[in-house]
Amino acid sequence: MIAGENIKTGLEKVKEWVSWCPKCNSCKYLYKDYAESCPAGEHFKFETYWSSGKVWLAYGLLNGILKWNENIIKIIYACPLCGACSMQCQQDVSDHLIEIFEALREEAVSRGFGPYSNQKAFYDSIIANNNPYKEPHSNRLNWLDQKELKTTAEVLYFVGCTSSYREKELAKSTFELLKKLNVDFTISPDEHCCGSPALRTGQVNVIPELIKKNMDIFKKSGAKTIVTSCAGCYRTLKIDYPKILGKELPFEILHISEFIFKLMKEGKLKIDKEKPIKITYHDPCHLGRHAGVFDEPREILKNIPELELIEMRRIRENSWCCGAGGGVKSGFKDWAVKIAIDRLKEAEQTGAEDLITSCPFCLRNFKDAAKSMGSNLKIFGIVELLKDLI
Ligand code: SF4
Ligand code: SF4
């Protein structure tokens, strides 16, 4: 994607893998108990919406068996890119499923068929405002009372667009938590969108510029560690940036849960205050399945005295997606909430009072779902819980 004459784009990038699916159908259900695994397949109930169908759709398009048309766009975009299929799939194609789905979107955009208008509006706003929410760039730190930030520090907190403009409590709590822990950190007022909303919807042209701008900001801060409280930003910085640049980043990228747990392991953080509540934890797809961060949030929660963590039926690799990712929240608003309602029902079945997660985008969709179904579950981020206990 970074400029270069021989760089493959769209479906050409995944050509090698699209014939690797023998249609064994293992991706449709969880190995554990044959519970549903794929939100897209379960909702639309047609083969092409499941993982295997989309792989063969890519094969058909690449080999001229199928022709591009408007109907194919819905199938391509009706997928939150949750990655549940890649956890169940035991064939070699499993490692490439998300790449194939994203390549389909990149190809659709390059051919003028995608994305949906709301997703295009996000892209346009990223170019105009450096965030997908049509908010002025100058308002990015409006959630922060204390505007005097250090120019350089050991740690840079990368807030992300959703926490900066929509889930400000998460940004405030993370700031407060890092302060209470005496972390040498700063935030850049010139932070740009990480690029996730554009990348996930196949709108890749803006990505090289965003990477350059954010990398310059990271370098200028002098930080050795970039900490983020958003699962989507985390996946993009940790996995996509090095992949696109073709080299490791000269910074450590940590999710706030990894950062906090590291402090705990080093003996620099001990939680003494009791919190006698029953909670359950939702694994954000981009943090868990995509990046393998399952244990750290759970270990933090287990270190809180009197807190009882009750797990849902489908957890870790087998979690049911919140429904917001992959452009589904903007492209299929009602369906995104329906996926989250399914997850909230599962959370309610545990008897927990609170649902904790580690991503502002999951939080947002769960809050919309709770409102829609009238759930009494209190929903908040792990940092919101922690900041009052330190
Ligand atoms: S995507 Fe994987 S699990 Fe699903 S049908 Fe193809 S090979 Fe089987
Ligand atoms: S990424 Fe998730 S929604 Fe998309 S095909 Fe795989 S399991 Fe289904």
What does this structure look like?
- The N terminus is likely disordered.
- The protein folds into three domains: 101 residues, no CATH class; 148 residues, Rossmann fold; 117 residues, Rossmann fold (3-Layer(aba) Sandwich), CATH 3.40.50.1860.
- The strands form two sheets. It has a four-stranded parallel β-sheet, sandwiched between helices. Strands 6-5-7-8 form a four-stranded parallel β-sheet, with helices on both faces.
- By secondary structure, the chain is an alpha/beta fold.
- It is 43% helix and 7% strand.
- The structure holds iron/sulfur cluster (SF4) (2 copies).
Spell out the blueprint of helices and strands.
Elements: H1 39-44, H2 51-62, H3 70-77, H4 84-88, H5 97-110, H6 117-129, E1 155-158, H7 161-165, H8 168-180, E2 185-186, H9 196-200, H10 207-221, E3 225-228, H11 231-245, E4 252-255, H12 256-265, E5 278-281, H13 295-302, E6 308-309, H14 328-331, H15 333-348, E7 354-357, H16 360-373, E8 378-381, H17 382-386
The structure holds iron/sulfur cluster (2 copies).
One iron/sulfur cluster binds near residues 25, 51, 85, 91 and 94.
Distance between the termini: 43 Å
Can you tell me the number of structural domains?
A: 3
Helix content: 40-55%
Tally of extended strands?
A: 8
CATH architectural type of the largest domain: 3-Layer(aba) Sandwich
CATH structural fold name of the largest domain: Rossmann fold
Q: Could you list the spans in which at least 5 consecutive residues all have pLDDT below 50?
A: 1-6
Please state how the strands of the largest beta sheet are arranged side by side.
2-1-3-4
Main β sheet profile: 4 strands, parallel
Which strand-content bin applies to the residues? Answer: 5-15%
**From N to C, what is the helix and strand string?**
HHHHHHEHHEHHEHEHEHEHHEHEH
- Give me the secondary-structure category: alpha/beta
Shape, principal axes of CA atoms? globular
SS element count, helices? 17
